[in-house]
Amino acid sequence: MFRIQLVVALLLAVIPQVAHPEAFSAGGDLYVAGEDSRVMSTAGRDLFATGFSVRLTAPVTQDAHLLGARVEVARPVGGDLMAAGGDVKISAPVQGDLSVAGVSVTTDSAARIGGNARLSGGAVTIGGPVEGALVVSAGEVTLDAPIGGDVWLTAGTLRFGAEARIAGRLHYSTREPLAIPAAVIAEDRVTFHPLGEAAARMVERDWNGHWPLPGRGAVLAGAARTLVFFVAMGAIFLAFAPRMVADLDGRIAARPAIMLLRGLIALSAAIGLVPILALTIIGLPLLPVILLAIILLWMAGYLLGVFAVSLRVLRALRGGAAEPGMGLKLAALAAGLVVAALLNFIPVLGWMANFLLVLLGIGAIASLPFERPAPAMAGGGEPGAPSDER
């Protein structure tokens, strides 16, 4: 599948660096990119298309190169077709060779392949005739079409449909030998290659997608380590930078809506630097630094957002009592982290609540260079508002 990898690299390297059109033509080749890429104009030569969803609704004169989470070919391809994606469906003739890699790969009865077909994926179904040779490696393989040449199949599960016919020889590898129907191929043209134990485990684990899930103990241990890490970071900041923590907490308490807006702007600006640097040569070495900075900013914002909300709840429960000490603040932080983690089990609303906490914290951090510190808190009362911007 080296050619498919080469196509993927070419699509990612070339298409995003044009002047951001959804489609353009160069030298007769058609380039299409977008979230929902519908190719509705005929490519004079080759076609290069990428997007979350790629649908070919116009014929291609020569070769087609497609990449997307969902790829559908509904019109003929005059040359070779190379595609990669999550769900790949071929429902039109291909005059040349077919090379496809995907989680789910399907060719239906209208997809007549004029050359050889090479398919790889989790589940592969061949419903269209192949005039040349067929090579398939997948977790589940279903052959339900006539094949004009030799066939090589490696599969965890192998099935033959009523339309399956093999004119050449059949070489297949499974865990155990199968009874190949005589209507598919004569027994003297069948060769079984035992699938080794290591290869069989790879098929079951990687191709079939049956990945082992962590046990309850591992999940709880991971959650406990994350909680300890965040509480430890909170303790470090409270011990060595108490004035800065109080200032950031005061900003969130005084103007939470402004902090949310600033957090959204700051996070958007940080993430927006990634594609900008990727389009420049001199900026490429800075990409790891920017990505690390975004991760650290996200973690710091989350920690600060949870701490600020937890502290508001603690002060409300204590009424007019004196300002809580460091021990109570850390206990409130730990309780807030647990509650925030449990919120993630609520569909949609849970992650939105956690995202708002991140934005609160990032907004306060982003305001540090532009505002004077907030006035110190007096006892258990609410912090004063920050002074006007410089």
Automatic annotation (TrEMBL):
One Pfam family recorded for the sequence: DUF8173
Signal peptide residues on this chain, from the entry's feature table: 1-19
TM region positions: 218-240, 260-284, 290-314, 326-346
Keywords, sorted A to Z: Membrane, Signal, Transmembrane, Transmembrane helix
Coiled coil: none
Record domain DUF8173: where: 222-367
Record flagged with keyword Membrane: yes
Record-given protein name: DUF8173 domain-containing protein
Protein's organism: Thioclava atlantica
